[in-house]
Structure formats: C-alpha cells, structure tokens
Predict the 3D structure of the following.
Amino acid sequence: MAIKKFAVACYDDEEVLFPALKKVRHSGYKLHDIYTPFAVHGLDEAMGLKGTDLHIAGFIFGLCGTSTALGFISWILTSDWPLNFGGKPHFALPAWIPITFELTVLFSAVGMVLTWCYLNQVMPGVKKHVFHPRQSDDYFVMAVELNDQTSEHEVVDFLKTTGAKETSVQIAEDSWWYGRFDKEEEYQKL
Amino acid sequence: MHIKYESFVREPLVNGDKNYHQVTEDIIGPIERKPGRMWYVGFFFSVALLCFGIFSVTWAVYWGLGTWGVNRTIGWGWDITNFVWWVGIGHAGTLISAILLLFRQGWRTGVNRAAEAMTIFAVMCAGQFPIFHMGRVWDGFFVLPYPNTRGPLWPNFNSPLLWDVFAISTYFTVSLLFWYSGLIPDFATVRDRAKTKFRKLAYGVASFGWTGSAKNWQRHEALALVLAGLATPLVLSVHTIVSFDFATSVIPGWHTTIFPPYFVAGAIFSGFAMVNTLLVITRKILHLEDYITIGHLEAMNKVIVLTGSIVGVAYLTELFIAWYSGAYGEQQEFKWRIMGPYWWSYWAMMTCNVVSPQLFWVKRLRRNIPFTFIMSIVVNIGMWFERFVIIVTSLYRDWLPSSWAYYSPTWPEVGFYLGTFGLFFTCYFLFAKYFPVIAVAEIKFVLKTSGENYKRGMEKLEAQSEEDFVYEVQTHHEPDHAHA
C-alpha cells in the first residue's frame, strides 16, 4: 500500500491493447496493471501473470464439507444418539449421501467465493482507485508505474505511440482502502 | 484477441450495430432513467399481492393450520404443491448459467442474469411453504442440527424431508453467490458511470470496489467455471431430493424410481417457461430486443419441447408400469387419477404439459413471440397441475376406504399462493429497475464473435479460400496470444 505515480494509457480496442502491451513489456517500464471492462482471454498470459489456484481452494473447502457432513452425521447416528429404524444399521451411509453432497457443494462454493474476495481484495466498503471511469465501459486501461528514474513525458509519449486514445499521469494509491465512491481522495503531489 | 471465427450461418446473439459503449448504454441506461408508468403499476400491484399474502399467512399462523383445507387424509395440499412448483421454476436460472456455461452455449449470456434472478426469487417463494406448513412456525429452527437441551436430540439425517432442508438452502446460497459474483463487475460499470452521489455510494458498496484488474478477471473466470461445475450436479440434485420426499414413501403413485429424472425434467420445463414469460415482457419494456433476440427465445422453446416430451414419456411410463406391475393399489390409483373426482386436474396436466408443447416442433411457432408467451403460461399452469395431481390425487384415496376424502383450498391457502406471486414479482420489479438485467461484461465478451455488425465482416472471410484465410490470420494476429 503506497501512493505512487502512474502513466495511464487508455485503448479502445483489445486488438490495439495486445501489441501495445508487448511493446510496454519490451521497453522495460514497470507495468502496474491493466483494467478491462470484461475478461479478455489471453491477457493474463500476455501480461506474464501466473494462473490462479482458486480451484484448489475450492477443492479443499469441498473436502472440508464432505468430512464435516460424514463425521457429524456418523457421530450423531452411531454414537451420540443412535436410533433404531426397523433394525437397520446405524451406519446408514447411502442415506447420508444427499446431505454429504449438499454440504460439499456448500462449503466449496462459500469458501471459494470468500477466498476470491480475499485474493481480489474486494468487499463492501472497499475502495480502489479508478484510473478512468470508462475502464468498466469500453476502455482498456493500462497503468505504468513511474519512479524517480523514469521521465513521465517520455513514458507518456511512448504510450501515445502504442495507439492509446487517451493518456494521463495520475498520482494514486496502488492498493485498496476503506472508502466511499461518492467521495474523491486528494493526494499530495509526489 | 478474437480470432475465434463464427459463421454468419449461426444466428447473431446481439443484433444491430453495437460497440462496447453502446452495450453499456443499452443495458445500464434503464437503471439511470425513471421507470415508466407500467413499472409503477406492476410494482404496486405486486406489493399489494404480497401484503395480501402476508395477511393470509398471519391468519393461518394465528388461528392455526385448521384454517387451511388440508385434512387427515390429504395432509399435503396447495402448500406442498406450490412449494414443488416454485422450486421447479427455480431450476432454469442455474441450469442456464451453469450447465450451459459448461457446454459453452453462447446464447446464455443474454438471458442468464434475469434467469438467475428469477431462480433466486422462486426459491425464496418456495421456501415459504414448508416453513409455514410446519404450523408452529416459531419452532421452525428445530430442523437445524444444533446442540439443544432435548438430549441433544438431532434431526433425522436419514429423512428426505431433512435432505430437502439442506438441498434447498444450499441451492439458494450457491445460486445467490453465483449470481452476485457475476453482478459485481456490472455494478462497477453502473458505479463508474453514475452521476448522482447516492448512486455512486450505493453501487460503490454493491460492486465491492471492483476495478476490472486483469488478475481479478482471471480469478473471476476461474470462479465462474468452478461454481458452474459445482452448480451443475447441485441443480440436478435439488429436484431429485424433492422427488425423494415422495419416492421414498409407500404411497401408490409416489413409490416409483422414475421420480428423480421425471421431476428434474419437469423442473427445467417449467423453469424455462417462466424465463420466457419474464423475458418476453422484460425485453419489450426495457427495449432489449437486440440482446434477448428471437433466437434466444427459440433456443428456450427448444428446451421446452425437449423437456416437455421427457415429461410426457414419464407420464406414459407411469401408466404403463402401474398396469404392468400388477399391483392392485397402483392400478386403482392411476384409474382414479384419470377418471376419479379429480379427473379435471389430470387432464389439465396432460393437455398443458404433453400436448401443447408439441406445437413447438413448428419453427414458425417457436419464433412467434405472442405464441411463446401464451405457451409459457400454459406450461406453468400444466406444471402446477402436475404437482397437484401427484400430491393430492395420490393421497385422497388411500389404503383405507373409510378415510377417503376430497380437498379444496380455503382462502388463506389461495392467499398464501397469491402472496408468493407478490413476493416474486416485487423482487423481480426491483431487480429490473436497479440491477443490470443482462450480464454486460459477458455480452461484451461475445460481442466481437457473435454481434451482428461484427459477423458481417465474416461473410467476406467465408468467401475466401482456406489458404488466404490462414495467411491473413498468421500475419494479422500475434501468435503468442492467438489461443483466445
């Protein structure tokens, strides 16, 4: 969490964005992030991002659900309060499958969504800097991090040559904070 | 990079000349405008129905379930009929969003949001019936396995009725999560466009601070895929378990192994019909004809004719097995269904569910909007009668002829049912006003492959020779991200 300076380039087409991204990565500037209005397939790989392991979390949560259901029901019906249903076995596994299945799905889904929220750092009341209001509409917004060594004019000029429709330099918090979207934060010039 | 090539022969999913911004305008626009007069009329009518429902339920809770028409022979009447009916309707949304996602059906993008919303509201309505059927509703929490001072005495985990508690509540939770995780990016779109302070604040909270970062989208896709994988068996399990409520009993007409697939098919059948009912109106009022096209309605009508036929086969199989089993009780049971005092409900079911959907084999009728609308209502009437037939006409003549009875509902039961319509439509009207009724981000995702104006360019490509096409692809697209 830090306040940083960014050069921002907005593209209006993903087919312009991909070559531009390649140029930026070759140039050695530090790519902060790319904001898109929808999931652009292949963008994560083009950016050099690793795949996500979210599904592994889902699997582990699912296992928790399975073992919770089986453990709890078998403990109740065989040891805590065994009931005799017409002499049938107390350990009636087939009858427990529906609830075991439901709890597996429930734990997996709830756990995975919570993990997703945590990893993405999204929650009601969380605020993040929006580089361009059209990044959720029709702009593909690339933010390049600036530091003492990079000249902002140079970077902006470079971004313009990559086909950006709009460019700007912004000072912003690079992470999230608790805030409201109807209030704008003021940052001191770096 | 949209190298995926789709022929013009395949109908466009988005009609008209659209770009990304136009998609946002068309779908988010209605949220920002004042609703029309029809919306207010519909909304207040729904709220009035809901209030009447609350009154009817309060009446039944205050005076006891003796105010209902159910009796000792027919212990399940309109309440459980309505429960099964609403749960069935609640199957379409998650089927569309989960199963069709796994099958990579592009047309789901236009209808999944509204269908999922409908699912959630339908399950909410369904849940009311078993809860208030408990009678002493204030003891409703007894169904939960919690350490209590009665032993602790636990609920019976071997009982299908308890499985139902778990199935319905899991289904509701997972559907809600699936729906809402898809809504988050679209709420961010509403937030970023918002002009008013309140809208910025409200949609800022609702969007969880989503910005559309590449990494977030990557996880979003992974989440949607795994949730779809989880929801697919879930959606099939829910109505399977509802059918176990009947199938594990020893009542003739209930005790059959055909019930799970038969119930699931019926659920999809009625769910798609309800989606059609809602979308035919929604697309008209919100001017979304370009996104919910006749092709979308036709696709759903195809599902209706398929599942309607499955249901029809199931009805005939039941009759055949009743005769073939040689079991006297079973045979009498089905004879009375067809010719007994409740003959009208059986024939209403047969006409609405088996005969009428067969008209959808005709392409002109599948693509006819007024006909689709009428059929969607006919199907749901038929499916209501199916549940009535299964429940009431299996119970009213039981093993002991001295306890044979007849049942008709009283006003609190009818009021309860009407009240759930009030609840359903109140929620749906609020949804249509304040939520993006179509998944904006998903439409944008398919726009360049399936949008009408983008497809026009494909005609030129189709005229090309294969060599030219391959050459063009190789020179114009960067190979390292061409796999998209």
